[in-house]
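Chain X:
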Amino acid sequence: MSALLLSFAVLLLIGMLISERASRTVLSTAVLFLLGGFVLGGGVLGVVPISSGDPVVATLAELALFSVLFTDGMKVGFTDLRVAWRLPGRALLLGLPLTLVLTAVLAHFAVGLPWLESFLLGAVLAPTDPVFASAIVGREEVPAKLRHLLNVESGVNDGLALPIVLVLLAAAGGTEAGGWQLAEEIVLGVLVGVLVPLIVLRLERLPFLQAQHNLQPLLTVSIGLLVLAICTATHANLFLGAFAAGITVATYGPGFREEFEQFGELLTELLKLAAILVFGALITPAFLFQEIPWTGWVFAVLALVAARPLALLVSFLGSGLPRSQQIAAMWFGPKGFASVVYGLLVLESGISQADQLFHLIALVIFLSILAHSSTDVVVAKKLDQRQPLL
């Protein structure tokens, strides 16, 4: 644990010192932590000898995904969705299912996976995470319409894909919960995620219970921790609870969302980078070049360059979105942190194809972080920002 902490601290220091230059070049903090974990892991230097069964892996992944879904939910309150929903709606309601199906088809025919496992793989890899292409969503020269599309899509698709992953994983025999029990966990998670913030926000409006202004971010943190604790105690699905709680806070307490935004983003970023470091340490040279056949590499490349681009090409028909922005949106669908955690859920599920699925998931994410984090600045500089927000 001390070696992991020291490695994280050193990489974080290096990442922050080069962050200004990285924001203007193909350098990337995400790639730094991924490659850092790869080099420091058991397959190369052995400084951070972590295996998938270590408790720190599951705990860190769980906490990080909870934080990601909570902050993602706060980006997509109902009011935000009503303002400009057409393009994100196309990407979510048509592009996401099509990406899932196309990825499943590729997995079945390129790798030979059974159909159920192929669709599970498609569901795990369907969500996107523009944190790994931050120059696209964080630069003013990028058209606001495109930034809004990618931000809303990435904020919602993690939560939309999760129930599908859980249902398919249960169908494959990878969880003790099945049928009504699984439905109960999902519904209970959503209820906890909605009711807890509503109750806390209602209490905070009472004259004698108002939070001090400079402590309001901690009130939002307390809501998240309470949802986490209740979901854990009741066996409700804590990830859907986190997502529902974030949306509820954004909808009924927009002031708290604004106060929490910077603090929440920094906390989530720290947890993500730590999880990426651990994820990189799980990947060894043998993992990539001996344990994955050439058909797995073919699938991984096609999953990045064909599945999402074709799905969004269909989704954008008749949308009026400029072609350059369509191409940017089709390319910048990086496989991010949600896919990492969903992949770990599959690995620990015990299903017969778990190891093969995790290898394919890890390879796609590895290639995605390298490819998307290295091309975002180049593409951002070529985009025009004069397009109005729908």
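Chain Y:
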Amino acid sequence: MTDWIQNLMDSMGYLGILLLMVLENVFPPIPSELIMPSAGFAAARGDMSLGMVVLMGTLGSVIGTLPLYYIGRAFGEDKLVAWADKHGKWLTLSGKDIKKADAWFDRYGAGAVLFGRMVPGIRSLLSLPAGMSEMPLPKFLIYSAIGSALWSAALAYAGYALGENYDRVEQYVAPVSKVIVGLLVIGAAAWFIRRKREQGSRTGG
């Protein structure tokens, strides 16, 4: 994948960075931890401007958040609540749970988007709850842009500083991403088991 990313940037320049970062948000297996350090290395060679690398990475990342945001927006809280009340029993999920989650996102969503855009493993997925909770698009874009700019700048500068060893960034970040995803899976499993037990207790009573 490293060669493909490098070849695309070599042939398309800044537009290649933008396109790759859009794809990274829609298809997370294409990691920004490879894209931006590689672009930073290109800037270190003098082939690109570091400022433009960060700008195009940020722009591509923000554009890439929009498909999932609009999917979440189209689905919406009301439809999700109705679905959960009708079909969510096997997931121990109710409309009330959805409303609680939506209320949480309404309260902390801006911070979740801002900091979540810098967290591997969940940065792409935050667009869905943002859309479902109907976070205003300008607000979503502003916080996404700030978080994406910080993330893109950190990765690009790391590639710039490491030079030919820019691929070490992905080696360091990838385990962190796996740990975060693992913790999310464990947390979801624990919540599922707890709700099953609670349902069993209510039924037994």
